[in-house]
Amino acid sequence: MTAVQPPLIGVAEAPVPPGGAAEWVTGAGGARLRVALFLPQGKARGSVVISPGRTETIEKYFEVVRELQDRRFAVLVHDWRGQGLSERILPDPLKGHAVGFADFVSDYRAILDHFECRLPLPWVAMAHSMGGCLTLVALAQGQAKRFAGAFLSAPMLGLQTPGRPKPAVRALSWVMSRYRGDGYILGQPGTPMGGPFEDNILTHDRVRYDRNLAPLRACPDLALGAGTWSWLEFAFTASAWLKTAPEVSRLAIPVVVLGAAQEALVDNHDQQQIVARIPKGRWQSIEGAFHELFQETDAIRQQVWAQLDPLLDQWAPESSG
Length: 321
Hints:
Elements: E1 20-26, E2 32-38, E3 46-51, H1 62-70, E4 73-78, H2 102-115, E5 123-128, H3 130-140, E6 149-153, H4 166-179, H5 206-218, H6 229-244, H7 246-249, E7 255-260, H8 268-275, E8 281-286, H9 298-315
Parallel strand pairs: 3-4, 3-5, 5-6, 6-7, 7-8
Antiparallel strand pairs: 1-2, 2-4
Helix pairs in contact: 2-3, 3-6, 4-6
């Protein structure tokens, strides 16, 4: 029996883009992953694969999907395992959990394999925060050959540890991941449905902040809470791998990384250190921006698109497709 097609949660503030539908894809260990493909009107000039950050869902990228459709791209967006409507890792669905990065990388490959025949060439990898970290690992571990280039928004190539030495936090995460790996780092799930806009460190745009909470209220199963100790150890391990693995220095495709000038979550210095290892890597700061560059104000988003559009023209010219 064929599994029921997974839903896409459209709300008045963020309707489902046209030409799209979600499917289940089987990932590592049989995990069920939700993935959505959105096609443009007419012939596509290429495809963009969007990999969201921690806690983020397909629905959060509906605006970006429509913008890429207007540029004649097919767009593939997925929920990572453990979040969105993909299979959760622990019995408590609010726990943001991970056990290393191997399963995530296998999931990414399985998703690309599943949709390969339906994604017009050339392909562009596009990712944010945790998704940027995992995408870069996947590219370095063999997936780069499928893409013309990669565009990473505030990728989690390192974490900030305000007020605490990073080596000490890394050591603590190593210990705690082995003794209380499935416990919340903060001891509680935090605010999965979002706190007051005034307290947020993600975006200066109140309208987009509120809009992104609307699908969570319409479908609470989309919500995700704070991370576990095992998730924190995964984040440090992935960053350390990217800083030392020879595969990163052999990446052959262009990788452009945008950092947020007012970043309070990931480490821009670590981003620059890792990008410097990539032969065709480039790092650029977006002035005035908090962490979520594509969820920012129109003025900040214009800076982001001013970086991205020339790359899309270079990697997937209008004459392609």
